[in-house]
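== Folding the chain ==

***
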Amino acid sequence: MAAAMTGQDAWLLVTAHPDDESMFFLPTLRHLKNRNNAHILCLSTGDFGSSDGKIRTKELQIACELIGWGCTVIDDDRLKDGPNEVWNRDAIADQILDCIKLSVVRKATDIDKVVNDNAKLNLNILTFDNKGVSSHPNHIDTFKGVRYLLEEKARHTGNDNSINSQLVITVDNKNICVNTHVWTLQSISNPLHKYFFWTVWELLPQLIILLFQLFWQLALFLLGSSLWSKTKVTFESPLTGSKQTSATSRQFRIMEPILAWNAMAAHHSQFVWYRRLSIMFSRYTFINNLIKLQPDESYLVHEGESVLPPISIIKEKESNFLIDTTQMNIIREKILPPSMQLRPWKRIYSLARDGDSFISFQRMVGEWNSKNNSQHSTLLVIKTTHGKVFGGYADVPFVQTVKHPSGSAAGTCLFKVLESDVAVYGKNNGGNKRVVLDPTRRMIAFGGGACSAGDEDDGFGLCLSDGFVRGTIARCEAFGNEPLVDDGEVFEVTDVEVWGFVFGQL
């Protein structure tokens, strides 16, 4: 059974095409085949030209059965096989994160036994280096996507000599801390060395050592069986094994030419003459050198800086958001409660994307509420025709309210985006803060307590009305806010977004 606590090791090989695992990574895969959690993520079906993606997927599954690893094959329009295709690094990172969640974390961790988000997993990601081993553009893009995941999606602590990179994966409302290490397969630029000279410089010396050891055993046997039996000479074949040459480099060696042939032959549609020759003579069939990829020191989190990982945003086709990731990070640290700071963000509604129908807005927010049970916190972001950005955080759901609602939205607050900061109003204030949604007037409002004007409609710190056409702002005692804009109490709206924070899987 999978463990619930710390110390679990997992291995994930990220490749570009079916057959990459057999062509290039076999020595590494064979040495790690007995690990409980070893998986291959192939980012395309290999359907370039006349190749059939379904056939190649099946061939990969057969090869993985021979090698002893599980596999997942991705069919994503953003990651199509072909030397002229440019792969989207966000798409690569998204697919890797999904695979880590579904095929790695769930297999390594008993989610039901995780308490207080204390589960930890050690993940080793294997992939190509920046030259792509064979210089294929898809291989190089795979490396770039993995590097992007490591540098931009993980949190990095430590110092220049020892950097710890950690991803936070949310599964069933529980956070799994994944200590992430990336190992890249070292490319060999010289084709003569890749296919021929390595046998002279690396294989032949090992064969000589092996023959000498065998000759020594034979000599002892011929000198006398008693002497031979008393002399305990043990040795490991120099042709197979693994060694860690430094803290950032490892080598794996095998001598299984029949397995290599059969694994590549499983990719029958690709097993043409030059690949047969490659399997017989290529250094990658017998030896892998892995180099650990370290993030640049500029990504290190130093003492006193935020230790939260980068914001994770649920992917969508358009990503022109009203607030950027820097502003999201400030909002997260200043506004969101600790229990929500590691949650991915999802844009529930966008005026520019979804239109100005208040009914559609209610439907989208209602669907969000139904999917998230009791977790209804949302962030309303508004942009005015003068380019000002501000909004409100609500820790209660956007649902139709009575004229004089009772109760309090204790964590609710207002905010406005400044040049390099975000001003927050009312987060820690007492008072009767409330959030109002009135479909008859197509209005959303944040208010409560004594405000700067006596009329009910003016008694809100922020009021968005007329179906997102315009709104009003005022000083409100419940929030203790200054006016959110300097252009008067009435503002015209350019765009509106509502953000939610993902609890578990949607």
